[in-house]
Design goal:
The chain has 2 domains: 43 residues; 129 residues, no CATH class. The strands form 2 sheets. It has a 5-stranded antiparallel sheet, with no helix packed on it. A hairpin with a 3-residue loop joins strand 4 and strand 5. The relative contact order is 0.15. It is built from 2 helices and 9 strands; from the N terminus they run H-E-H-E-E-E-E-E-E-E-E. The longest helix is centred in the first third of the chain and has 40 residues. With 187 residues, the protein is α+β, with helices and mostly antiparallel strands.
Length: 187
């Protein structure tokens, strides 16, 4: 069966093979471009905008199990505020009237400063707390009783916490009532 259907089949297979080989440089260049793009994205993307963002996260510690059970659906566990979003009055925060003390975590680049007031419209009568980061690591504050009243405090970075500078002006029930927040201001 020379020159029959088998020969036609062989010629077509050879033709398709040549066609795939001719198109292969396009496929190879596409793969190279895709690999280079993925490498660039994986290594460069984490650096885009690094150090420009910041966030303050407030946590409300509910003291008793009864309070947690009774107000559990009414109280948020945490409240996040992005950098440069000043809050004149935090009355829209659902856990404002829940019994308990606040703790906070501050993220951002060195020099990120936030002031938390115990009174609406940045009033100082009910106390305020100013926090400035000194490195890139997060800063966690869990207990405001450890800060001295009307004194600047410098804390160096350790295994659990980043470095920071703070000023605390005590007020009645300050750690239970955060009412307004101002970024990049030292009163």
């Amino acid at each position: 069966m020379i020159g029959g259907k088998e020969g036609a089949f062989n010629i077509e297979v050879v033709f398709l093979t040549k066609r795939v080989i001719q198109e292969r440089p396009f496929i190879m260049s596409f793969k190279k471009i895709l690999i280079l793009f993925l490498l660039f994205y994986n290594f460069a993307a984490p650096c885009w905008g690094k150090g420009e963002k910041g966030k303050l996260v407030l946590f409300k510690k509910i003291e008793s199990r009864k309070e947690m059970y009774m107000a559990g659906r009414l109280c948020d566990i945490y409240f996040a505020i992005e950098k440069d979003q000043d809050k004149v009055a935090m009355n829209n925060m659902r856990n404002r009237f829940c019994v308990g003390e606040y703790s906070l975590v501050l993220y951002g680049p060195p020099g990120t400063t936030v002031t938390i007031y115990g009174q609406y419209f940045y009033g100082k009568d009910r106390g305020y707390f100013t926090l400035t980061k000194t490195d890139d690591r997060k800063v966690s504050i869990g207990n405001f009783k450890s800060f001295e009243d009307q004194r600047w405090m410098v804390s160096m970075a350790n295994k659990k916490n980043g470095g920071f500078e703070s000023y605390f002006h005590a007020g009645p029930g300050f750690s239970r009532n955060f009412s307004s927040i101002k970024w990049n201001e030292i009163p």
